[in-house]
Design brief:
The protein has about 500 residues and is an alpha+beta fold. It is built from twelve helices and 33 strands. This is Peptide chain release factor 3.
Length: about 500
């Protein structure tokens, strides 16, 4: 039964409070019992959903986590996304696997660059957005100003569902427009402990503002929201529990159940009998004791049963899925069955890659999971040359995860890694050492960017004859033009009209 599934992501600029909100949603959903407990089985080093060493050192999320919880008969699949812009590729791919998103905005800062970038990704896929203005218990900008910014910068209709009674030092609670109740701050830490007042007296200085807010914005319209044209706005403080319950209710009530997914010209309905899905993420070494490798599959249709055989599009022969995993925040559970909208973890040893379609009949390919041309290219130099084999294995693993792209030059033996942001390089070096016991340094590369070459085999062969020093193969064996500057790309494109030099490659 797919109508009771809600698969959603949380997007925000770093420091807007995303990890705290994730934790409080899980707390409200009964998936965890104490704040600060979002972690996998007993591993204290994985505090919250940020479990990699570098995440703990930096206090940021650089991987996507999946957490499932159930409340009032609805199964919520929450996909946490990297908050740092250097990991926008991983976030983009995660957003292909959700049906809606919560956009978290800091009440003092409004729309920040990374929020806007992620919103544009959602808009490309018409993903409906619920807005959560966080930290209203601190000094922040005027709520009307914040709403106008959302409306103007994102070209969205905004429909406030609640309103703060004062902000910062004057914060006296939140009025819920639907229930006409006020959530009040209580106790020495002034947090929400569950007290909701009906017929609450609202100080005159705030009453006029509230009337303006009620009358000045469009009513909530479910169809406009699900088309991505309108966003309902909730105010609150994740840290102090304000607005969290209302947010869960909004996801349950308004967020769409699993939506059809594009497979070329066709849309695959969640009602289809055949089990289908696609891999949007691969994560190695989630449990370093077992050197495991989990592929995350967004199930698109059908009822999956444990032990079922599915055909990965990249492989062509069926694999039996004996130990599928559902991710509960505090644990992993073996999944006996799963429905459209669920996220299943499939343990494997390199057979599954980001972008693979899995299906019973191998007749469809899901589309829309791109690789982007890297903005930074570096050569990898081993400190110990005897570890070449381990390095190759590590680079292949990490490129399958989508952490980096790896290019093998046609001439010369030094492999080149490509990333979108500098922080990915730090993660690469950190993980090479921690997980593969390989010490390496990164050196400048003679190339500035890379383009995938498309065209007939004859045209590619002819181009390769004269440009071999500038060519490499990617992990899939596809031909890549390594350019020293954007000018080189334009020149090559002009001189070779039969070829396309693409900045994206769809998996």
């Amino acid at each position: 039964m797919t109508s009771n599934r809600r698969t959603f992501a949380i997007i925000s600029h770093p420091d807007a409070g995303k990890t705290t909100l994730t934790e409080k949603l899980l707390l409200q959903g009964g998936a965890i019992h104490l704040a600060g407990e979002v972690k996998a089985r007993g591993a204290a080093r994985r505090a919250r959903s940020d479990w990699m060493k570098i995440e703990q050192q930096r206090g940021i999320s650089v991987t996507s986590s999946v957490m499932t919880f159930q409340k009032d008969g609805i199964t919520f699949n929450l996909l946490d996304t990297p908050g740092h812009e250097d990991f926008s590729e991983d976030t983009y791919r995660t957003l292909t696997a959700v049906d809606s998103a919560i956009m978290v905005i800091d009440a003092a800062k409004g729309i920040e660059p990374q929020t806007r970038k992620l919103f544009e990704v959602c808009r490309l896929r018409s993903v409906p957005i619920i807005t959560f203005v966080n930290k209203v218990d601190r000094e922040g900008r005027d709520p009307f100003e914040l709403l106008d910014e959302v409306a103007d910068m994102l070209a969205l209709d905004v429909s406030p569902q609640m309103w703060p009674i004062g902000m910062g030092g004057e914060f006296e609670g939140l009025l819920d427009f639907a229930t006409e109740t006020v959530s009040r701050p209580e106790g020495p830490s002034r947090e929400f402990l569950g007290t909701r007042e009906t017929d609450a007296a609202i100080p005159a200085r705030f009453a006029e503002e509230i009337e303006l807010a009620r009358g000045g914005y469009p009513e909530f319209d479910l169809e406009a929201f699900r088309h991505g044209d309108l966003t309902p706005v909730y105010f609150g403080s994740a840290l102090k529990n304000f607005g969290v319950e209302e947010l869960i209710d909004a996801i349950a009530r308004y967020a769409p159940p699993p939506r059809p997914q594009p497979a070329g010209e066709e849309l695959i309905s969640p009602e289809r009998d055949e089990v289908t899905g696609f891999i949007f993420k691969v994560q190695a070494n989630m449990d370093p004791n077992h050197r495991d490798r989990i592929a995350f599959m967004r199930q698109v249709s059908g009822t999956f049963k444990r032990g079922m055989k599915l055909v990965p599009s990249g492989l062509g022969k069926p694999i039996a899925v004996h130990s599928p995993i559902l991710f509960f925040a505090q644990d992993r559970e073996l999944a006996d069955t799963a429905e459209a909208g669920d996220i299943i973890g499939i343990p494997n040893h390199g057979t599954l890659s980001v972008g693979d379609t899995l299906s019973e009949k191998n007749q469809i390919r899901f589309t829309g999971l791109p690789n982007f041309a890297p903005e930074i290219l570096r050569r990898v130099q081993l400190k110990d040359p005897t570890k070449t084999k381990q390095l190759r294995k590590a680079l292949d693993d990490l490129s399958e995860e989508g952490v980096i792209q790896v290019f093998y030059p046609e001439i010369g033996s030094q492999w080149i890694v490509g990333v979108v942001g500098q922080l990915q390089l730090e993660v690469l070096i950190s993980r090479l050492e921690a997980e593969y016991k390989v010490e390496a340094v990164l050196e400048p590369s003679p190339f500035a960017t890379a383009r995938w070459i498309r065209g007939s085999e004859a045209a590619q062969r002819s181009f390769a004859e004269f440009n071999r020093p500038n060519l490499a193969k990617d992990r899939d064996g596809d031909l890549v033009f390594m350019a020293k500057s954007p000018w080189d790309v334009n020149y090559a494109a002009e001189k070779n009209p039969d070829l396309a030099f693409s900045a994206t490659k769809e998996r």
